[in-house]
Write a structure and sequence with these properties.
The chain contains six helices and 21 strands. By secondary structure, the chain is an alpha+beta fold. It has two domains: 274 residues, Thrombin, subunit H, CATH 2.40.10.10; 68 residues, no CATH class. The longest helix is centred in the C-terminal third of the chain and has 12 residues.
Length: 409
Amino acid sequence: MNATSRSAFWPAALGLAAVIGIAADGHAMNAEIATVCESCQFPTAVRMPLCSGVYVGGGLVLTAAHCIDDVIEGTSRAYFGEDSSDEAFSAIIDHCVAHPDGDPSATVFGEGDYDGVDLAYCVLDDAEPLPDLPVVPPMIPTGCERDWLAHQVYETGSHPIVTAVGSGCSDYDNCASGVKRYVALQLVAQVTYGGSSTKLELERWGELSTGPMDGDSGGPVFEVLPDGSWRLLGVLHGTNVAHKAAFYEAVPPYLHWIEADSGVDITPCHSFADGEWTFHAGWCAGELPLDTNLGGASWANACPSALGGGEQGFLQCFDLPPDDWAAIPQEGPMLPADVFLPAASSLLGQPPALRPAATNALIGELAPLAVFPFLAEETRGTLPLLWLEKPAKMRKAKRDLRGAPSTRG
């Protein structure tokens, strides 16, 4: 299911795509393709009940939303380490929250499946201290890191190589043991798949097989930036046997939801205010992992930076050649029109004296539903969330979207 357009980075979720399937091959990360992790190799990739996940700091694990039905809150654990026979440590999962745009009741061809945004976060119980691991931060959905990734995917002519990690098991219904493995894949495109248009399609090159399989759902896919530092791109939704491809739910579009809903900051280099992600030089010095892919360090020492992290040197935007795909000026998070218009009508109906308080409350309520589009084409059918603070913008949007002639002022 290759994308034929480059206009689909981080838009809102769309309709259900056909021939979707959560990985159902009966194996974990394909042992004939993937490589077994050494000690402290990709240390933030964790094993969950029947699934995988990725630790992002602050006591949070990200995973696929379809995985959390198997979590018994207050009892199930997230396991760190390379396999069940040599677990470094574990933590009780206090509770999990699925993104509100997901639907676990959807079916495809009579088989149970997950429709929509397949992303969730789980909060680990802090009664047991967690080691200070070198955490791979998620890629920010705006700015030069995003521009570089879009350029690599759509403009260079060769798809970037990313790394998928999973701790699946050979018996999907009895996942008491799982070996952590990793595999290199091509990032083909962002596609609409499984009811979400923020899926990342990954494929093997020259081989008719994917790497991720049963039990690897929720596991991370990482990318390396030109400075050598790593970024989290997404978590595994599932594989499509017919297309020999793996599909990951992208994490960057939903960072504001994760942080606002959980109250945990998982973007150590950036702050988010007024609809913008702002990079702060110096916040990340010495903290971001450069060598998370290297094994051999000690879990007893929390996988120290010698083989698990390092100095962050990248502080400037990447030098990209001029081309015709340039990213749009960002206006912050964007709301689907069918969400924006009722909100605008509600606010415009408020007395002016009451409108500021109502606006602040409504923006806070709708913020988790907003997304960050990449390119100009992706803004179709969306409007900036913060336009709800501007009556003139709201009135114009209502006229334009309802087909009424637009007037100045």
